[in-house]
């Protein structure tokens, strides 16, 4: 099997582009130059009729109620769309416009991955609005939101802030009210763009008030390549259903997993006593309970999305940065992210909420650190906490890291869940190929 870095860096052969499976349409003569990342959120506001002024948001949302009559009664009433209809390229000109770098810059002179998560989230929503565009309508009756970050795989150790970055993507699968979006990020090296990451997001369409589901245009398949992508979307849906059905919150661990936990438990018993309650750590190991970090965010209007809830990309950035700090503290060196998967947006976060983030190392192997970040909110009026998201990040440290050991049954379930997410990578990531390593 090929190293994952090579496998991931050739993923763009499966992403359809105008030169690879998509028919290039004539360009709009009125369009001058490329679409930039900072323009995407502005265009999203135009599409849904959202105001840039916080004081006007109530009026804007009231006006959206009038769009409810424009929603399709069934999917059959909507014209099919092609994958090429939603294909989008967006430029982040860090190289050609140096004044943009500070927002994206880390102290190690690399690009902040949390900012990239924000850009991917906005782009995914924008692509879905292109797929479901109502021709002739100035404002869309649909409210499209991120339901799931299925997978993000990286093939670069770090991202340079001194070269331009290009994002591209399109809708690759459609259900009745949901859409899968495949996106890719590339960075300019010399005269060519080389792959940095690939991402798969799932978006859902809601009605004009974001209160119930809405139908989206079906997808018209035109080539074997598109058929393969669509079938992969079906497989992804089946995999998610199977993964959810076997969740440790629903069913007991497998026999192999139970054996793993029991062996770990036995290895922590004090040989000097005959007791199940006397526990000692094996060499080069850390108790899971000692690997936690927490943070609190006040959700201000500045971080709102076009529907006046907290922007999902902001939540991902904050969760990632806390997860990175947890991995850094645990491993004793600066880690880099290799995979993000299974981020489910379970509940929207309202403006004014208190956002509690709790990060924990739940599995380690060699140089890898699997981190789980749990997000919950509480309103200022209520002390009740509700889970909004659970984030899963896989990091790689510069050196081998300690083993993490659970003490309780609950921590044992976290360990097994982390192991499952880690094993979802098809092969260990190898960043050491000369063509794919970018030094900080």
Structural commentary:
Helix content is 28%, strand content 27%. The chain is built from ten helices and 15 strands. The chain has an eleven-stranded mixed beta sheet with strand order 1-3-5-6-7-4-11-14-13-12-10. The chain has a two-stranded parallel ribbon with strand order 2-8. Helix 2 packs across helix 6 and helix 6 packs antiparallel against helix 9. The N terminus and C terminus are likely disordered.
Care to give the gist of this entry?
This protein has 440 residues and is α+β, with helices and mostly antiparallel strands. The protein contains 10 helices and 15 strands.
Strands, helices and their partners?
Elements: H1 4-9, E1 35-36, H2 37-48, H3 57-64, E2 81-82, H4 83-86, E3 88-92, H5 101-104, H6 113-131, E4 143-154, E5 165-174, E6 178-189, E7 192-206, E8 219-220, H7 224-245, H8 255-267, E9 285-287, E10 292-298, H9 312-331, E11 336-345, E12 354-365, E13 368-378, E14 386-396, E15 403-405, H10 409-423
Parallel strand pairs: 1-3, 2-8, 9-15
Antiparallel strand pairs: 3-5, 4-7, 4-11, 5-6, 6-7, 10-12, 11-14, 12-13, 13-14
Helix pairs in contact: 2-6, 6-9
GO molecular function, one term: fatty acyl-CoA hydrolase activity
Family: Belongs to the acyl coenzyme A hydrolase family.
Keywords: Hydrolase, Mitochondrion, Repeat, Serine esterase, Transit peptide
């Amino acid at each position: 099997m090929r190293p994952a870095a090579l496998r991931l860096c050739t993923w763009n052969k499966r992403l359809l582009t105008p030169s690879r499976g998509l028919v290039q349409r004539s360009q709009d003569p009125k369009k001058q130059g490329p679409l930039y990342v900072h323009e995407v959120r502005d265009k999203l506001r135009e599409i849904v009729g959202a105001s840039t002024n916080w004081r006007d948001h109530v009026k804007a949302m009231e006006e959206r109620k009038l769009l409810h009559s424009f929603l399709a009664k069934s999917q059959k009433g909507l014209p099919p769309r092609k994958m090429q209809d939603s294909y989008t390229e967006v430029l982040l000109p860090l190289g050609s416009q140096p004044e943009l770098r500070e927002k994206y810059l880390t102290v190690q002179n690399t690009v902040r991955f949390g900012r990239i998560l924000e850009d991917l989230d906005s782009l995914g929503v924008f692509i879905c609005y292109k797929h479901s565009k109502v021709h002739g309508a100035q404002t869309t009756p649909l409210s499209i939101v991120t339901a799931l970050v299925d997978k993000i795989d990286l093939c670069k150790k770090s991202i340079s802030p001194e070269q331009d970055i290009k994002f591209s993507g399109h809708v690759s699968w459609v259900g009745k009210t949901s859409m899968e979006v495949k996106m890719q990020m590339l960075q300019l090296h010399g005269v060519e763009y080389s792959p940095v990451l690939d991402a798969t997001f799932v978006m859902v369409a809601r009605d004009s008030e974001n209160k119930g589901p809405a139908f989206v245009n079906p997808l018209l398949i035109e080539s074997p390549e598109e058929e393969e992508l669509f079938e992969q979307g079906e497989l992804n849906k089946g995999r998610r259903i199977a993964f959810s059905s076997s969740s440790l919150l629903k069913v007991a661990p497998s026999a192999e997993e139970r054996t793993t936990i029991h062996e770990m438990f036995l290895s922590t018993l004090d040989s000097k006593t005959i007791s199940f309650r006397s526990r000692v750590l094996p060499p080069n190991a850390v108790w899971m309970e000692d690997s936690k970090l927490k943070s609190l965010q006040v959700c201000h209007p500045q971080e709102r999305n076009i529907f006046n809830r907290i922007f999902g990309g902001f939540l991902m950035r904050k969760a990632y940065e806390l997860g990175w700090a947890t991995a850094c503290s645990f491993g004793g060196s600066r880690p880099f992210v290799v995979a993000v998967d299974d981020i489910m947006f379970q509940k929207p976060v309202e403006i004014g909420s208190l956002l509690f983030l709790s990060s924990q190392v739940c599995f380690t192997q060699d140089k890898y650190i699997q981190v789980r970040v749990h997000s919950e909110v509480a309103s200022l009026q209520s002390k009740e906490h509700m889970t909004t998201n659970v984030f899963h990040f896989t990091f790689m440290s510069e050196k081998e890291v300690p083993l993490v050991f659970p003490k309780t049954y609950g921590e044992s379930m976290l360990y097994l869940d982390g192991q499952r997410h880690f094993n979802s990578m098809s092969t260990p990531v190898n960043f050491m190929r000369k063509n794919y390593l970018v030094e900080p």
